User: Which sequence fits this backbone?
């Protein structure tokens, strides 16, 4: 009976000795632990349905075109960040982000063993949650999964799983964690943004950019968006930009003219050659926030510019910070929830694809065609 269950549920056709199973920090770890439990102990009813699922898989590091849709075993309620505990989620929508594109080439700092299921943020309904999590079966949630999100079922730590407001649909929920939590952390905690200050936002029509425009407004700041086309200008204005300048024009001179001397904060997820001009756009005691490098090139800074003009370059690495700070992450989530309920945050979903078209979703980001957030419709 045990062998039949293993064959039907997880597709295992060869018995693995219990002593050979080990715990790994990649997606096969849960399967191996489950195999061991079937061999070593009687089968007992579980509080959730273990089944096969459809998932996007990276099996070689040759770019977005190499990802495939496969049948995979559904995960257990166990997460690498919270061993033995996790929130199981039936995924309705999964966010697609620049780190996912990097992972298809092995260029992201998180490098799981191959093959693995990418996807770091989802929205859906709770299947199973730890007793002390405050979450209920059937509850609508948005969650940061780290990996495994591009699948019909995913698992996330409880402290990275948040109730999803009725004001937002599931696609917007899948747009929420990575972008809005990153931007809130960058602007509020690292950038010390104050009411009445001015923020310059690069890549303002993308997921991070539109989130920055909305959160800056919620914090009482005004914004100037930097975009590269008429269509991207439309998206930036929809997200609430007070002013818009074009990256293919004299944007630095325009920013200085619009502000009468410079902005207080620059938020830059792009990097590249424009970073030096961003520093020149800062007024005294201004802060340039480094969020990422979607432009590909990592800029270098001549520190005499910082000295002579009394300005700062500030790194804002949200992921590395919140992984070890569960309570800070919960506090950030509460602050963002208030902004949602107050109407400041309404994620802009620019492109939606079925799970079968994950390649095209990744290409949209890789080719810099994304407007707002790119989302996979899963459920």
Assistant:
């Amino acid at each position: 009976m045990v062998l039949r269950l293993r064959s039907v549920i997880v597709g295992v056709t060869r018995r693995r000795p219990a002593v050979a199973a080990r715990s790994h920090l990649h997606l096969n770890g849960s399967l191996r632990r489950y195999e061991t439990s079937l061999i070593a102990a009687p089968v007992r009813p579980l509080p959730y349905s273990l089944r096969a699922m459809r998932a996007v898989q990276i099996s070689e590091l040759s770019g977005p075109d190499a990802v495939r849709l496969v049948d995979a075993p559904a995960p257990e309620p166990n997460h690498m960040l919270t061993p033995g505990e996790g929130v199981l989620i039936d995924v309705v929508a999964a966010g697609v982000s620049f780190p996912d594109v990097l992972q298809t080439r092995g260029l992201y700092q998180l490098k799981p063993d191959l093959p693995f299921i990418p996807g770091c943020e989802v929205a859906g309904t709770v299947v199973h949650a730890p007793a002390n999590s405050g979450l209920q079966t059937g509850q609508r949630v948005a969650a940061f999964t780290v990996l495994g999100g591009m699948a019909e079922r995913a698992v996330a730590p409880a402290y990275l799983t948040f109730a999803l407001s009725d004001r937002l649909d599931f696609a917007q929920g899948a747009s929420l964690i990575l972008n809005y939590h990153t931007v809130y952390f960058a602007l509020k905690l690292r950038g010390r943004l104050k009411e009445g200050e001015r923020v310059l936002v690069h890549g303002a029509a993308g997921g991070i950019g539109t989130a920055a425009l909305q959160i800056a407004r919620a914090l009482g700041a005004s914004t100037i968006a930097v975009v590269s086309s008429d269509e991207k200008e439309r998206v930036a204005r929809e997200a609430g930009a007070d002013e818009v300048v074009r990256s293919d024009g004299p944007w630095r001179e325009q920013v200085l003219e619009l502000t009468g001397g410079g902005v207080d904060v620059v938020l830059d997820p792009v990097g590249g050659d424009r970073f030096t001009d961003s520093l020149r756009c800062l007024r005294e005691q201004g802060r340039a926030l480094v969020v990422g490098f979607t432009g590909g090139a990592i800029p270098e800074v001549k520190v005499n510019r910082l000295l002579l003009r009394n300005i700062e370059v500030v790194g804002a690495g949200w992921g590395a910070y919140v992984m070890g700070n569960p309570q800070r992450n919960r506090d950030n989530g509460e602050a963002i929830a208030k902004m949602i309920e107050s109407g400041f945050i309404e994620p802009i979903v620019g492109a939606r694809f079925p799970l079968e078209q994950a390649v095209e979703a990744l290409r949209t980001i890789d080719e810099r065609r994304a407007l707002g957030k790119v989302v996979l419709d899963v459920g």
Remarks:
- The CA atoms of residues 205 and 232 lie 5 Å apart.
